[in-house]
Amino acid sequence: MHDPTPVPFLAGGGRATELILARDWTDHPLGPPAEWPEGLKVALSLVVNSPESMILCWGPALHFFFNDTYIPLLGPRVGWAMGAPFDEVWADALEQAHPIIAQAMAGHSQRFNDLHWKLATDRGQADTWWTFSYSRILDAQGEVAGLFIFTNETTAKVQADAALRESTERQRQTLQQMPGFIAILSGPEHRFDYVNDAYVAIAGPRQFIGRTVREVLPELQGQGFYELLDQVYASGTPYASQAMPIQLAHRAPGDAERFIDFLYEPIRDPAGQVSGIFVGGYDVTERVRAQRLLAEANRNLEQRVQSTVRELMAAEAALRHSQKMEAVGQLTGGLAHDFNNLLTAVTGSLELIQRHAARGRWADIDRYVATAQGAARRAAALTHRLLAFSRRQTLDPRVVNVNELVAGMVDLIRRTVGPAIALETVGAAALWTTLVDVPQLESALLNLCINGRDAMPDGGRITIETSNRWIDAQTAEARGMQPGPYVSLSVTDTGTGMTPEVQAKAFDPFFTTKPIGQGTGLGLSMIYGFAQQSGGHVRIHSEVGVGTTVCIELPRHLGMPQAQAAAVAMAAQQAPPHATVLVVDDEPAVRRLMVECLTELGYTLLEAGDGPSALRLLASEARIDLLVSDVGLPGGMNGRQLADAARTTRPHLKVLFVTGYAENALIGSGQLASGMAVMTKPFAMDQLCTRVQELVTAPQAEQARAQSTQGL
Question: Is the whole-model pTM more than 0.90?
């Protein structure tokens, strides 16, 4: 039997030493380990103590020895391979191995990278790949005594590389199918790794791959593109531009100047360092040329608009203090820019609709209508922001739980601020309810989160928190608000913060720290005006380099969130009842649209253009179930006065006010009386129809409201 006691030269060998000592060497050609040649002992000691995967083959039969690191590579051979002849251990690979061994024994050592072998493994016969080197071992007399093999299995790496190449090819095919032009640049020299066909179509047929932008597109010298690429690579900050002019060679005469919308997006390696730039965009030359033609056709209209804007700027300049002049210039420039853009979208769409209709080309009509409607909605939103900061907007307050409002907006906010910003919400338990215009509060919350995002260009955290607060008399007086219970909604960012000078001006109308064209300065002013109009307050706490907290405080309302909304919605979905609606509006076009819309739903319609005419109809015996009236009416009687007069003889008459601009006193600064509602112009016709249906089916909604408020 073999001696289980480890011999000294095998010390430190771990499992490999155990396998050597566990073998019976009695009849083995090499004999017991203690009697092995000194060269074998020294070489084997080196192998079993090495952390690298090593093999030692000794003697004419190349008896096979290995260390612990090599054991996982043996597969099913590990139990018997120690000391066995090489040809027995690797019987399934001899055809490939023997030529390599012969070269090594002849003194021609070789190294192979990722060489393929078909071998028996724990998973059966399989394709494997190996990186290894074979070299001979000479004894003291210079005779070949054995073979040393340094090896590692690279199957996983080879397969991963193949999968990566396949994935890369799929990505390239996907990029090729994407709309717009695409290029991928690598390194600080901006070397082309990929371009799609759309990129080649713009730049012309050239040799791109492996060459730098400066080499491929020398005509860009002096146009600013080289500098922009260098800036994005150095800073890691994306850059985007719209309708950027670019002069290109290899194009037909008169077509060298193109206009592109493009994005330079940094590409980062696994360590987070910028390693290249993704270039994407669209050739918008035809759109720009069409806009120029349209602008020329509408020159007179544009001149009138610009003249009006100049008069507005002059009037504002005369009214504002000298220290506000720069802010006013920023505002009017932004408004002129926005309104000119929106007006161009509306008039251009109408012109194209007229032109295509005259030619009987109906395919694109819907698209032009959608463009005009979208521009009109954006113009309405801009007007709404102007009214908000002046506290002249018409509010439609509802009882709301702010925790529920925040929860409903989390997904929208997270998408808006982007993945670089961590979003956290902290909702107070048993939060009080408040009476507030829900869309206005949602808009304020979203604006504050966007401001927080803009203050954290390198990422950070936004925390939205709610709480119940009691404002004492001293604090209330200092803030210009009433003492008592308030619901607090705060937004905190970890951004750049504000200096005391900026904080002092933050709520001033038109004040902004953003570049021209990127802000009108109405955001915080709008939120301030909305909070004041709702009976609350807004305050800011900020530290430079630490972050900013903006807190909106709204009065507590002793009531539950309006559970009747579901009942109203169900009632609104029912077929329209046989009801008569009186529409009062001094603008014939608006009145005609409302009448036509409601007539299509089956209502009986009456109409009037002023208060006295409408009052005569209300004084008659005619059935009238709902009064829809503009607030600002000619004839000495506004819409609220008309409604009050009508209710003296028709006390249960339901009223829907529609208004584009009105002092709150005209419709009441608090919640409207029962059976009354308000809509702000402009509105979609389907929204009008839904609101009318809600009001004419009010008995079911009122019953739901009564049930929801029992026990308060």
Answer: no
